[in-house]
Predict the 3D structure of the following.
Amino acid sequence: MQSGIIIVRQIHKVIRHYFPHLSEEMNCLEDNRKRRDYEVSELITACIAMFLFKETSRNALNNDRKEGYFKENYLRVFKLRLPHMDTVEDFLRIVKPEELEALKAALIGGLIEQKVLRSLRLLSKYYSVAIDGTGTNSYTENDDEGNRTHKTSKNGRVTYHYHIVEAKLVTDTGLSISLGSEWVTNEADRNYDKQDCEQRAFERLAEKLKGYFPRLPICILADGLYPNKTFMQICQSNGWTYIVVLKDDNLKTLQQDIADTENKHCRSIECYNTAAKGKTHIKQQYKWIDLPFCYSTHTLYWFSCKETITRYDKDKQLLKKQDTPCTFVWLTNIEVTQDNVRELSQTGRSRWKIENEGFNTQKNGGYALGHKYSRKSFSSYQNYYQCMQIAHLINQLAEHSSNITEMRDKYKITIQHLWKQLLNWFTYALAEPNEFDTGQRCQIRLQ
């Protein structure tokens, strides 16, 4: 249970150090309740805590609050009472989702002002922001407000979904932080089309991002759905750079220009690395064309990375397996040179972090993104989603802090085990009355 109190203290330290005015900011949200038994901060914090604790339903947290010292420890850690989650649900139905999203953006803006993520920028200048969409839930019927998108199968069966497009700040260290969210809207007369719906959602999301972070230097990372004039014009209008995947069937005329030019003006370098204690050898061949290409009114640069992985046995002598080489191709509006091609390639590939450290973690890593937290109110469901993003932000800052990563490496502790011990501590070990009252300044180093 020792590791449990360590992670509890680290989460408390993250909130106190990075977000010292969080409760006050929550209490500034619009409150239209007639009866106010709890402050707004108590209700919102309870929702965030459900995800902080990685309890996968409202009922699970309700069960926790009846066990052992859970409520007493919660009060001593957060300095707030823990309401029943039905009370939280009633409040989330009347809160405007844009208010909670603005709160999330303000928290991240504070991190940027504190220069917490400054050292993780691309080319020491740009914050890498990955764009991608995911489905969250599936239903057999639409909601009362008609918000769910729908698909019709070959046998005529109609299923309904909530689908969201996210902009997440991603880093090489594994952070995946939600900057903005845009729900894909339903069109009653149209079947769901991933490319068309996500691109139109991105247009709204881009406007939202620019509003929240008007001066933030951003590099958008996008997949093969996005290399088109509309995407490039949005980025250009907002002063953003971008790295976008170029698939074989994208921009055929431009692809021909690239093929015609590649033999004369292509440059390349090779890099070699090892992993798995020297048993895995990685060869990466970077190519780029040192001339820009014109597409409509946009100036583009082409580059690629061909990666070959060879795996050896435990004696590092006999060939165990050679993977099929993988080739990644991108377009960017950043000039590509020998000095930056490797960093640009690594950043382009880090777009996957929105799927792995982002969506996959929230679906399968304890946050239960696929759970139907509110079945009757879409506004409430959106608010749960924003609370999940805030909780994931806090947990990531705790998980990536040096003392937690060093402890995990030293004792080979998994994240799952760490959170199991966290819940055990809340339930069975009563905190001292003033244990979490410290006003001392602290320092957090991220890894």
Q: What stands out?
A: The chain has a mean pLDDT of 94. The first helix runs from residue 2 to 18. The CA atoms of residues 94 and 362 lie 25 Å apart. The longest strand covers residues 298-312.
